[in-house]
Specification:
Blueprint (H helix, E strand, L loop, with lengths): L1 H22 L17 E7 L20 E5 L7 H6 L4 E3 L19 E5 L3 E4 L5 E5 L5 E5 L18 E8 L5 E5 L5 H8 L8 H4 L9 E6 L5 E6 L26 E7 L3 E3 L1 E3 L1 H15 L8 E6 L6 H16 L20 E6 L8 H20 L10 H16 L1
Parallel strand pairs: 1-3, 2-4, 9-11, 9-12, 12-15, 15-16
Antiparallel strand pairs: 1-8, 2-7, 5-6, 5-8, 10-11, 13-14
Helix pairs in contact: 6-8
Bound molecules: guanosine-5'-triphosphate and magnesium ion.
Length: 406
């Protein structure tokens, strides 16, 4: 009997140690270059610890089982950690220990803490959202531990709760960058960062197409931070293919401003798409993904203005844009099939060159202005409309490109 108790205690100790190990995340150890297995959505079984049994002879009570807790942490960037800590996709808290003649109150089992990035929504097995973990330290209990055995339960400890949950990551970023492949999104993000900040891994060596979203904070002079998510490229028909470009759009959910990065040379892989066509096709992809995104504040950033013939191409782009938005779409010969049902209303159009650093500071300033303006507007619907209409913006933009790029 004594031997059996010893073995039981030993087994429980082993379990305690092993679970403690997997829940202590310490410093994030994301291998930033291994992007192919990037995880931003994960199903997990969670099991609360069982309560320990009490002892009727000594009236000792059992300890309660630990809870399973999901906690947001800035140290974690994605869900790869969770997968590596719980390879069998089961997170179980520690059982409470039994009460005994020599131990009138059994110790409680410890909690199992699952550290996740900020921006996680936890869904139950019916895919109803249980909780949103927005900022560092936000937490939610996803499986309660069972109560320890007492006289009320005939000294039997209760089982812990168990359920299947889904962790779904949507970055809490103020702004998002979307565009066709090679339009310069990642380079633009590095230009917006301060020189002391870390480059995106894929730009620190030779050019690699982004295969996962990157989240970075843009620093402003007076300590203001604006977070930005750079998304992998989006192409025409992405929703129909295995290309995950479409799937990544979920990271725009919390954005306050979306930057459409357009290559002034258009996109040429098999079929050529002009700048205006790429813009309309991005609009369409967003509409297919979630048409609520269409009313988010947005900005057109026309990149690679250092290219040969860019100023003429920019003029053409503005003319086409004007005709698309004034609904007379004449002389464009644009294919009707690329038109979205609803056009996005852009708050500004800014021509830039990442290679020559043209207009980068202006864009950085404008991002901040628009975010602040939109925030004020959302709090006060009567706020006077101080931003010019799209057509006026086009004229201003035209003047700007002439003065700054000539
Ligand atoms: N000429 C010119 N080339 C640029 C400019 N900005 C970016 N590029 C080049 O365009 C290529 C693509 O740049 P990225 O920043 O990786 O483009 P991306 O949009 O992040 O590409 P994906 O990750 O594939 O979506 C690189 O070779 C850049 O050097 C620019 O202002 N002018
Ligand atoms: Mg990129």
């Amino acid at each position: 009997m004594v031997l059996l108790t010893c073995v039981r205690t030993y087994l429980k100790t082993i379990k305690v140690d092993s679970v403690k190990k997997v829940t202590s995340f310490g410093k994030a150890s994301v291998n930033e270059k291994s992007t192919s297995n990037y995880i931003d959505s994960l199903k997990l079984k969670v099991i609360g610890g069982s309560g320990g049994n009490g002892c009727p002879v000594s009236k000792a009570i059992g300890g309660s089982g630990g809870n399973v807790i999901v906690e947001a942490s800035n140290e974690v960037d994605n869900l790869n950690h969770v997968k590596s800590c719980f390879p069998d996709l089961t997170a179980q808290a520690i059982n409470g220990l039994d009460g005994r003649r020599t131990r009138l109150i059994g110790p409680n089992g410890s909690d199992c803490i699952i550290k996740v990035p900020c921006g996680i929504t936890v869904f139950n097995q019916f895919l109803s959202p249980i909780s949103d973990l927005v900022k560092e330290g936000d937490k939610t209990i996803v499986a309660y531990g069972g109560q320890g055995g007492t006289i009320r339960s005939n000294y039997f400890g209760a089982q812990g709760q168990s359920q299947l949950i889904t962790l779904d990551l949507r970055y809490y970023a103020d702004i998002g960058l979307i565009g066709y492949p090679d339009s310069g999104k990642s380079l633009l993000l590095t230009k917006l960062l301060s020189s002391k900040q870390k480059l995106l891994p894929e730009l620190s060596t030779e050019k690699i197409n982004s295969k996962r979203p990157w989240l970075r904070n843009i620093n402003y002079d007076n300590g203001r931070l604006i977070s930005c998510v750079d998304l992998p490229s989006l192409i025409e028909g992405a929703h129909k293919t295995d290309n995950r470009g479409h799937h990544w759009l979920k990271h725009l959910t919390h954005n306050q401003l979306i930057l459409f990065v357009i290559d002034i040379n258009g996109f040429n892989r098999g079929i050529y798409r002009s700048p205006i066509e790429t813009l309309l096709l991005l609009n369409k992809q967003i509409e297919i993904f979630d048409d609520r995104y269409l009313i988010k504040p947005a900005l057109i950033v026309v990149n690679k203005m250092d290219s040969i013939g860019a100023d003429v191409a920019y003029e053409d782009f503005l003319v086409s844009l004007k005709s698309v938005y004034t609904n007379n779409n004449q002389g464009n010969n644009l294919d009707e099939s690329i038109f979205p049902k609803k056009l996005i209303y852009y708050q500004d159009i800014i021509p830039i060159s990442c290679h020559r650093d043209t207009n980068i500071d202006y864009l950085k300033k404008r991002i901040r202005e628009l975010i602040d303006f939109n925030y004020l507007k959302s709090r006060n619907p009567d706020c006077p409309r101080s931003f010019v209409s799209l057509l006026e913006t086009i004229n201003q933009s035209r003047a700007k490109v002439k003065t700054q790029l000539v």
